[in-house]
Amino acid sequence: MKKNTLFIGRTLNAQGKPVPGTGIELPLNSKITQLLHSQKTVIISNPVTKEYGAMISLKNENGISRNKGLGIIPPDSIGPPKHIHPEYDEIFTVVEGTFLFTINNNTRIVSEGEKIIVARGTAHTFKPAENKICAFLLEANPPGKLNEVIRTIWGLAHDGKTNTRGQPREF
User: Fold this and answer.
1) Hey, which residues does 138 pair with through a beta bridge?
2) Which stretches of the chain drop beneath a pLDDT of 70?
3) pLDDT digits (tens, 9 = 90+) for 29-74
4) Which of 73, 67, 110 is nearest to 92 (CA)?
5) 120 vs 24: CA distance, rounded Å
6) How far apart are CA 100 and CA 36, in angstroms?
7) Nearest CA among 122, 90, 120 for reference residue 103
8) CA-to-CA distance for 155 and 105, rounded, in angstroms?
9) Dihedral angle at the C-alpha atoms of 16, 6, 47, 116, nearest 10 degrees?
């Protein structure tokens, strides 16, 4: 590990040692690392789609704290499988890098500082558009159980119970 970097998301083997080739290395001065200072949960990961995330708390313009998801997506991530959320809209704000969002089979580039809203019931997916670690803030509207859904699906991926696209297998 280089100086002035932070290593996150390393998978540990049965002996508690880091598995080579897992995790990602972030510069200490990156926007992602700065946002991780406000994390409220442990960093979680999906070994199939190669996504990382944490719940963070940020103050809005009125000084009120709001919980948001921080998605950290390395360049080799396949992104989540195409999916829908019937109960809530998702609001993505890109904080580092550029993403390709596919919404209803239309692909759009979303760059740092831009926001995209995915309406409930709309099929969507995303992945990095460039060869670098990218990140976004995510809000669900109305707030719901998005954190629990992600933790469950990503836990299934760690247990080998998803397909190669990260979709849960039938039990």
Assistant:
1) 69, 92
2) 1-2, 171
3) 999 999 998 888 889 999 999 999 999 988 888 888 888 999 999 9
4) 110
5) 31
6) 23
7) 122
8) 28
9) 150
